[in-house]
Amino acid sequence: MDSTLTRRQALVGMGSLGVALALGRPARAATRNLAVLHLASHAPSFIAYERGYFRDAGLDLELKFFEAAQPMAVAIASRDVDFGVTAISGGLISLAEKDAVKVIGGALREEPGTVGAIVLASDKAFRAGLTDPSALPGRSFGITTAGSSFHFMAHKIAQAKGFPLSEVNLRPLQKLGALVGALSTGQIDAWAIQPNVAKKMLAEGAAHQIGLISDYAPDYQVTAAFTSTHNAGAEREMTSAFVAAYSRAIADYNAAFVDNTVDEAQRDELARIVHKYVESESPFEAAKANLVAGAMRINEGLALNMGSCIEQLDWFKSEGMVGSGVTREQLFDESYVKLL
């Protein structure tokens, strides 16, 4: 099956990008916003907000929820949102080429020895023989949009297993919830997602684990912190304050859930904060266990793995999903954090 997704298709997946840029950048709203997803990888966002780290840094930030990475990039470009932490997508890169957004740091990453994103097969596909990613040719793999992190993960699997990605039917379903539903009901054969979502599906018997993304992309910088080009250049004090506040929350998260260097009472306090936003429909103890079991490293101080980011940029170019002339300088402002 032909999975080739062109730049034109990737741009279609960006939704209101053209409208946002055509209308120009509106005047700043009084309240500033941080774009987030209902995922455990966004735990530092929730911790910084609930513990008052943003207020301590002089920022009046509210949380604004999204269902996928591409709309977050559009919201940053239009300055409806000031900051976001999500995957580097084709949409984000195209906006950077238009001088609308900048990546200013790195967040979630795959780390050897830590369970990261899990490759899942639907129960139907697993019973039909999809027990290893090498059996993906001829089957469907869920992504949110063309140019999303899920698209890149599918590429890394195909590259490692030695088959053309064009032999996999990539199914863009726009939203995380739609992907969960499609895999659970066998409408798609496979998907790869962060462990807090994957392990819940595994526990419910809705999917089967057939691999780990860390086996195929061990140094993958999964998510990055970004802001508008205006904020990065003209609002340096505010942007630096955001990096400092977010870094405090990252330290809390890693200590509690990755490095296990805090006591149970402190871990419970942080888990209850995250539970307000992630798996809030589940009993606290079950959600906490899933959070601990599925914790992935988030880079201290929002440090950025530039090697992984450049690999992603080069791949998007090679696939024709972004302009071939996009430069490192257009996409990144390297002055805010340490580079790995």
Automatic annotation (TrEMBL):
Residues 41-252 form the SsuA/THI5-like domain. Pfam families: NMT1. It is found in: Periplasm. Its main location: periplasm. InterPro entries: SsuA/THI5, TAT_signal. Keywords: Signal. GO terms for cellular component: periplasmic space. One of its GO terms (biological process) is alkanesulfonate transmembrane transport. Belongs to the bacterial solute-binding protein SsuA/TauA family. This is ABC transporter substrate-binding protein.
